[in-house]
Amino acid sequence: MTASQPLIPAQVVKAGQQALDRYIGPVDGVRVALLSTPDGFEIASLRTNSELQLNRLSAMAGSLMAMARAVGREINHTGCKRLTFETETGVVVFQSVTSEFPCILCMVLDTNAILGRVLWAAAEVGAEMNKV
């Protein structure tokens, strides 16, 4: 832990890793799944066939969700829960997880991923984190 990194309770880390392994792990097309704190620190991660720098992705997750919420407020659509964008090589999903220890779930998907299946799995991760 560094001076600026928050103390993440061990049970949150354990529950996060178990939820990612259980619900995201079996889903085809997920290159990275990452749970991070709203201020950009990794809680748990799952990586398949990816060299992405998770610390960078984690740092961006909170900023992107904050930006999405700001846009939502400007257009009177408050309470942004998810930000999804498509690229030529896949889809990226950022989803807020409201729990005792709030976090953001980020998933980087390749073109083989079925978005509906991924979103279902993301909801299950959120439900598991609400039990912590």
Automatic annotation (TrEMBL):
Roadblock/LAMTOR2 domain span: 17-109
InterPro entries in the record: Roadblock/LAMTOR2_dom
Family matches, as SMART domains: Robl_LC7
SUPFAM superfamilies membership: Roadblock/LC7 domain
Name of the protein in its database record: Roadblock/LC7 domain-containing protein
